[in-house]
Amino acid sequence: MIVGVPKEIKADEYRVSMTPAGVRELVTRGHKVLLEDSAGAGSGLTNQNYLEQGAAIVSRQEIFAAAEMIVKVKEPQPQEYGLFREGQILYTYLHLAPSPELAQALLDQNVVGIAYETVQCADRSLPLLIPMSEVAGRMAVHEGAKYLERENGGRGILLGGVPGVDPGHVVIIGGGIVGANAAKMAIGTGAQVTLLDINLPRLRHLDDIHGSQLKTLMSNQFNLLESLRTADLVIGAVLIPGAKAPRLITRAMLSQMQKGAVVIDVGIDQGGVFETSHPTTHSDPIFEVDGVIHYCVANMPGALARTSTFALTNATLPYALTLAEKGYRKALREDPALRAGLNVCLGTVTHAEVAKALGKKFTDAEKFC
Q1: Beta-carbon neighbour count of residue 229 at 10 Å?
Q2: Which among 87, 88, 115, 119 is least surrounded, fewest beta carbons within 10 Å?
C-alpha cells in the first residue's frame, strides 16, 4: 500500500503522524511511504531521518494524488477537503460531532474516515486517545498555573502555596485519563485538589490511589457549583466517545466563580464542557468571560510536539500496519476496536454518536467489512 504523511497545517500544530521508525516498519513490509517535505520538522525530525528509513519526500499534491491511505494527526483543514479521493483511507483524529462542515466534506468525497478518538477496545478503553489525554491532562495543570499569574490576568495564585498561606484549589471535572493525569500533576504541586465524576467505582479507584491528597465528589449540579465557588483552576475533562461533550457548566454557574480564576477546557475538540467556551490556538490561547480566564486550545499536545508525536505514534502505528497489510475491509472485519473507529465510509456515517450529533442517518460499519 502507498501511505501518505502530509505536513500538518492546523494553526500551531507541530506534531507529525509518523516517525522514522514507523516508516521503517512499513517499508520493510513492502509498503511505500510518501512524506511531505519538512513534515517532521516541528517534532525535531529531519527529512534525512526519514530518507534513511526508506521514505520518499514529495509534494502535498503528490501525496494526496497517489496515497491509498493518508495518515495525519489532526482533522483535515478546509484547504485540504478537495484533495481527497473516493475510497481513500483517512486515518487521523477527526472530531466530527462538532464539525458538520468537515463531516459533509468527507461524505461528499466518499472518504473512508477512521478516527483515532473512537477506536475502542472491548474494555471500553480508547487506545489512540489515551496518550494524548495523558499529555493534555498533565499539560492542563502547567497552563492553568501560568495563567493564574497576575501578569497573565489571573488571581495571582501559586498552586502549592507557601508555609502560612493556603494553596490554590484545583477542581477537575471528569475522572478519566485526562482527569486522572491532571489530578496527579495538581497533587504534585501541593494544591488542594477536588475531582468530580458520575462514576462511583472510578471515584473509589482514584481515592484508593491518592487517599487524602484528593477529594472526590459525585458530579451533580450542587457539588459542581459549590466546588466552582472556591476554585482557582477548573479543568474540564469529560468525554463521550464520538459525541459532543456535555455542556456541564453554564454561564450562570461560571459567574459564581472568583474573578481571575482560570478554566481549561480540554474537551474543546468535542465542543467543550463550558457554555462559554470556543476554540483557541496556541498563538492566542485565552479569552475572558465574566472575569474568568478561559484556555480552550483545541490541540493542546501540539505545543509539546516531540513528546506528543512519539507518544501518539507508539499507539497508532500498529493499526496503521494492519490497515496497510490487510486493506480496510479485512482489517475492520477482523478487529472490532478498529471497526469502532470508522466514522464515515463512502458517503455514509458509520458511528452512531457521530450520526446523532450531526443529524445524519447511521449505517452500521459492519456493512463495509
Answers
A1: 14
A2: 87
